Amino acid sequence: MKTLYLECSMGAAGDMLTAALYELVNDKYKKNFLEQMNSLGLSNVKVIAQTDEKCSIKETKIHVSIYGHEENKHKHENTHHCKHHLEHNRINLKTIESIILKLKVSKKVKDNAVNIYAIIAQAEAKVHGKAVTKIHFHEVGEIDAIVDIIGVCLLIERLSPEEIIVSPINIGKGHVHCAHGILPVPAPATAHILRNIPVYTNDIEGELCTPTGAAIIKYFANHFGQMPPMNIKNIGYGAGTHKFEIPNCVCAFLGQSNKNINSTNNTVVQLQCNMDDIAGESLSFVLDLLLNKGALDVFYTHVQMKKNRPGILLTCICDIENADFFAKLILEHTTTFGVRKTICDRYILNRKTSLQKTPYGNVRIKTGEGFGIKKSKPEFEDIAKIARLKGITFDKVKNTIKIK
Prior knowledge:
This protein is α+β, with helices and mostly antiparallel strands. It is built from 12 helices and 23 strands. The chain folds into 3 domains: 256 residues, no CATH class; 83 residues, Alpha-Beta Plaits (2-Layer Sandwich); 49 residues, no CATH class. The chain has a 5-stranded mixed β-sheet. The chain starts with a strand and ends in a 6-residue tail after the last helix.
């Protein structure tokens, strides 16, 4: 299977991902890519690729200038939180979609770019407690982000991987200074996008993962984990803006994995414990906590325990990299004295999320594909939210959704 693996040990940003993928294509297409990026139909936008060497590693840095000015990537990508050096207008998601749909790229690239931006807008709406239609973005910064997103979508279309796997993402730590004050790392919108994605932090101070980088990865990644056994054909290094003691880059590996396209699977950990002395309120709290911290699934089963006591079997399914983290949470927040760990291989459908417009608002559609099977379903929370806001029934909203 043609596999693209992205190593995000220094986080991810739109320009870093574009540059890493740019290094994977041949020299002829590199030239065509830059020509296409500079003739998209965006006025006063210039895209160049610069090759540099850091720590004996050849890297590519993508520079995007607007009106001759290059924005600070890791600041402007914090969407409308951050202050820009140029005077500019504020635009909404509908305007951004209109800009994307007019660009000189394929329909597939346009659709992917619109769906990625919808992920960013949904996150911003959640963070600010507003409807997506009420969220506004800074025009200069968002044009820059559109260029990054389109660049990634073009390169993914060119490379055509059958599977995209992403490592756990280093999100950095500390705080970022923005126009609205000092925000934690990851920024709130980034944190929302990264839900249910394995992340970690180490001693590196700074914002390593941006909203644009997080949204691109969330949209394109089939699953997350370590690099599978694969024959690597090409390697790309996409440089970031900030300088650290170690190379600040996304590493992209393109090659053939040993996995058949119809046998998608990955490895997860199942954590379990039996309890006969936990209160219902505490159990409810623990389930919500584990899910909010990124567990893949959490549930409990009524069981018969020793001494004929009725009890609860708590099960938490998580990524293998986060097993210790979730085991500690279970030990801390429940009455159990021990947690069992089972490593499981599971068969999964490759998953994508798209956005469908309905007469009542946008609804996310989850699609799973593999093993010759394809199925889609709308996101329950989106339907329920619309039904509550509009004062209509759940089924009335659901019946407007067309599943292909």
